[in-house]
Amino acid sequence: MEVIHLSVECFPIAKVGGLADVVGALPKYQRVLGIDAKVVIPWFDRPFVKEHEFEIVATGSFFQGSEELQYEIHKEKNDILGFPLFLIKIPGKLDREEVYCYPDEAEQWIAFQHAFLHWIQNNGIHPSVIHCHDHHVGLIPFLLQYGAVFRDLADIKTVFTVHNGQYQGWMSWSKGILLPPFDTWKWGLLDWDGLINPLATAIKCSDIYTTVSEGYLNELFIEANGLQGLFNTESAKGYGIVNGIDTAYWNPQLDTLIEKKYNKITVLKGKEENKRILCEKYNLSSNLPLLSFIGRFAKEKGADLLAEIFIKLFSVRDNICVFILGSGDREIQDELTDLALKFEGKLSLFFGYDEELAHQVYAASDMLLMPSRVEPCGLNQLYALKYGTIPIVRAIGGLRDTVIDIENEGYGFVFEKLNTDDAVKAIERSLDIYFDVKTWKGIRRKAMQLDFSWDRSAQKYVELYNQLLK
Ligand code: GLC
Q: Are residues 139 and 215 in the same domain?
């Protein structure tokens, strides 16, 4: 069975968030299950692309409105990621350094989707399933069925995965003329509240939609940035499948990015050493428990609450250090900078995206805080668990599904309501137990024994594909 994953992020070529991690790992695990899984993403002007060998396997052109676009399909020659990887290059549209934040994003993603369909149609490529990830490729299920020039592709099944329902790819109807020709009387499938809404279109037109945890699936029925009604209407084809993690890459025993490798037997010494190095570098005391936050400074992640949480925390406890790694919202960044000055020696920061440092922070930390407002799955808590770092999370979406509170014989600390007092209480609870060395050791061992590898979830997707092809 041939399955093509279509996305605009894929680790390690282009990563902004967890979407990249999923697209960079799931196909590899599906191949182990006998699925001919491949990945297609835009071409990026990035190190991975320069450092690896690619060959151009197809070229073509099409009109986007009145503009003629040329595309090239670049295939990575050695399947170095464990699956065939194709990049679509379109000079002027898909040849850039960053993934997001260009003013012509709508044009970029329309071009990407059009080029993909044009390529497969004209080169006899006919996968059994196209698995689309997030709104950037949300028009594919519609275009397969109602694109006037893609009739040959209409029998291809589609699975659409919602990694984040907050972003929907809205565009004004003035962009409609940029789409490949389609059956215009079907325009209603593109529309939501007077705008073209690729996420809504995908939910309407895909054969199956999935979300990255069951908890999140249920939350979308209640609140989905305006689409909750639609998620309800289409619920018969909705499934929640929790993400896995790539344990070949996120594994303290094999991790070449951390100073001292360790496993569940040697975790005490291993963490101590990694913590010493991180704390020395960032001017923190390595004798105290280390709590970290890793992630985008976005409201969704609750990053706007961090400053208040830590002010309150330090007013009741001084036996803890904090490390924050992330970037995003300027205001949050400024607030945290002030905080780091105020709590010098207790709280340190690194602003930016740094994959290597992230590994080191998981390896060095005792706890990881995730006060998310919305969390479709969350991967950081899963990475943390693998590194014996105990997650302190808000009970939402995938966090609720994957972290069980120690009071329920679990391995983490969970708080229900999103407010800084409850977050601080959860941190305090973790501190009380941290100093009970034997109990903490037990929790950490339990955490490291959990299996959140892709094996099970990759299989669940395969079952869905089979169901569609029956
Ligand atoms: C998005 C979500 C995150 C999820 C990831 C991968 O980044 O915000 O919760 O883990 O996608 O599915």
A: yes
Nearest to 37 by CA among 379, 465, 451, 457: 465
**Does the pLDDT at position 353 exceed 90?**
no
Task: State whether 124 and 175 are in the same domain.
Answer: yes
76 close to 84: Cβ distance less than 8 angstroms: yes
User: Both 436 and 353 in a single domain?
Assistant: yes
**302 shares a domain with 234:** no
Which atom belonging to ligand 1 lies closest to the Cα atom of 212? 12
Q: Tell me whether residue 307 is in a domain.
A: yes
Q: Which residues line ligand 1 (CB under 6 A)?
A: 17-19, 22, 163-164, 212, 243, 375-379, 398
pTM of the model: 0.96
Contact call for residues 53 and 274 (beta carbons, < 8 A): no
Residue 261 exposed, middle or buried by CB count within 10 Å (0-12, 13-18, 19+): middle
| Tally of domains within the chain | 2
The pLDDT, as a whole number, for residue 180 is 98
- What residue's CA is closest to ligand 1, atom 10? 378
Q: What is the mean pLDDT of residues 347-364?
A: 96
Q: Phi/psi of residue 22, each to 5°?
A: -65, -50
Among 235, 232, 228, which residue's Cα sits nearest to residue 208? 235
Residues in Cβ contact with 101 at an 8 Å cutoff, skipping those fewer than 6 apart: none
Residues 63 and 82 in one domain: yes
Query: Are 41 and 102 within one domain?
Result: yes
pLDDT in tens, 70-81: 999 999 999 999
Position 385 in a domain: yes
- Is residue 174 located within the same domain as residue 294? no
Best residue among 377, 396, 401, 452 to mutate for probing ligand 1, ranked by most atoms within 8 Å of CB: 377
The percent of residues in the chain predicted with pLDDT above 70, rounded, is 100
- How far is Cα 59 from Cα 446, in angstroms, rounded to an integer? 52
Could you tell me whether strands 321-328 and 347-351 are parallel, antiparallel, or unpaired per DSSP bridges?
parallel
* Residue-number span of the structural domain to which 217 is assigned: 2-244+455-469
Whether residue 251 lies inside any domain: the answer is no
Centre of ligand 1 from the C-alpha of residue 385, in Å = 17
Q: How many CB atoms lie within 10 A of CB 459?
A: 14
* CATH code, domain with 194: 3.40.50.2000
Residues 212 and 295 placed together within one structural domain of the fold: no
Of 280, 278, 266, 269, nearest to 324 (Cα)?
278
